[in-house]
Amino acid sequence: MALNKVMLIGNVGRKPEVRYLENQNQGTNPAPKVASFTLATTERFKDRNGETRENTEWHNIVAWRQLADLAEKYITTGTQIYVEGRLRSRSWDGQDGQKHYITEIVADTIQLLGKKSDTAQNTTPATQANVAPTAQTNVAPAAQAAAAPAATQNVAPSTDLPEDDLPF
3-state DSSP: the chain helix, strand, coil percent, rounded to 5? Predict the structure, then answer.
């Protein structure tokens, strides 16, 4: 048995780059669409001296077909999203003759959570988060259209737990 699953919540680093692959059958099916963008996740922790430190990781996200449509229409720099997918590494020979390597997350689910707050100093959770349409590779376009109206979800900030203490 094997498991390859990645779940991330972060802020988009650059607007998605959308490309269409060449259509082999030239029939009624359009050429597959693919979107790629970067996602930043930041881990906050306290060092030995009690000072708060941050460690930001950058992830390469690849979204296909319906998820590429979602990325093209709704995702922009700074958008906060949830991505669920699988890890993929690949390599290629560049024009410079060097071998290049990349590790990507191939998205199975993308959920829009809202925009990054204007103040970078704000580390407390927001009291309201705008939840936008969710797209999954196994969801019909009609179901996505039904989920299109944005909803508001109230999240109460918890200040009584230490930063490294998990509630479960």
Answer: 10, 50, 40
